[in-house]
Specification:
By secondary structure, the chain is an alpha+beta fold. It contains 10 helices and 8 strands. The protein is globular. The structure holds iron/sulfur cluster (SF4).
């Protein structure tokens, strides 16, 4: 809304028009038009949704999931998460004793020719692992200069109630770090959880084993053959509660049973 129109509305308010309500409605409309547009689902594995083979199968076969209308505040929570990542990455670039590694450069320097950079900003790199059809945005790679150790960096923001109880890496985030490790061949991950209320942080290190990485290869090869045979994978019994709670395919999964 232009200044001229806003001025007109304010004048009209004196005549009984509820400007605050109109402003709020127009703001929400703008949020939805900016951030609420769904992108078509790509037929690629995503580390953030690799917790469940059945959910991967549904996603890659374009199964009908729940399509709830997006709420403006939910769109803004997602955007706030992206903003927080840029802030964290900017801070890391100024940390003494640590180097924030350019992911594209890391791929080149380590001859990871199976990784294709498909997008890049100053702080984020979008990568496709052509071996396993995994597409991901990397939050970054950091190097501890003194020990010359490389770590995958994973930043997370969460509600105060979750953050206060946090004592380690969330079980819902573990599988995605296996994916990153599989693609980059880096064995260690630094997870940093930020409290959305006051920006306080908790940091945890996770070490990834060859077995952890193999579990992702097994999931992907099994899922690919299920797709080829048009067979819904068996429902896994170890999917973290939070993942099922927010799963778009909950109804379909119940329908398919075990
Ligand atoms: S509801 Fe749970 S088990 Fe079923 S597809 Fe979703 S994440 Fe997987």
């Amino acid at each position: 809304m232009g200044l001229k129109e806003l001025g007109k509305l304010i004048r009209e308010n004196k005549e009984g028009i509820d400007v605050a309500r109109i402003f709020s409605r127009d703001y929400d409309e703008a949020v939805l038009s900016l951030y609420g547009v769904s992108r078509p689902s790509s037929k690629k594995y995503k580390p953030s949704s690799i917790n469940c083979i059945r959910a991967c199968y549904y996603k890659l076969t374009d199964a009908e999931g729940k399509n709830n209308p997006k709420q403006p505040y939910v769109c803004e929570i997602c955007e706030a998460g992206s903003d927080a990542h840029i802030r964290m990455q900017t801070v890391i670039q100024h940390m003494k004793g640590w180097e924030f590694i350019d992911v594209a450069q890391y791929i080149k320097d380590n001859n990871l020719d199976y990784l294709k950079v498909t997008g890049k900003t100053d702080t984020e790199t979008k990568v496709l692992d052509t071996r396993y059809n995994i597409s991901f945005f990397s939050d970054g790679i950091v190097r501890h200069i003194k020990s010359n150790r490389y770590f995958i960096f994973e930043g997370k923001t969460e509600k105060q109630e979750y953050w206060i109880k946090r004592k380690g890496v969330d079980e819902a985030h573990v599988a995605q770090s296996y994916c990153y490790s599989l693609s980059t061949k880096i064995e260690d991950v630094i997870f940093m959880y930020e409290n959305r209320n006051d920006c306080k942080k908790k940091v945890f290190e996770l070490n990834i084993t060859p077995e952890n990485r193999s579990s992702i290869i097994t999931l992907i090869t099994t899922c690919d053959s299920c797709i080829n045979d048009s067979v819904v994978p068996v429902k896994p019994n170890n999917v973290p509660y939070k993942i099922c709670l927010f799963c778009d395919y909950k109804e379909l999964c119940e329908k398919h049973g075990k």
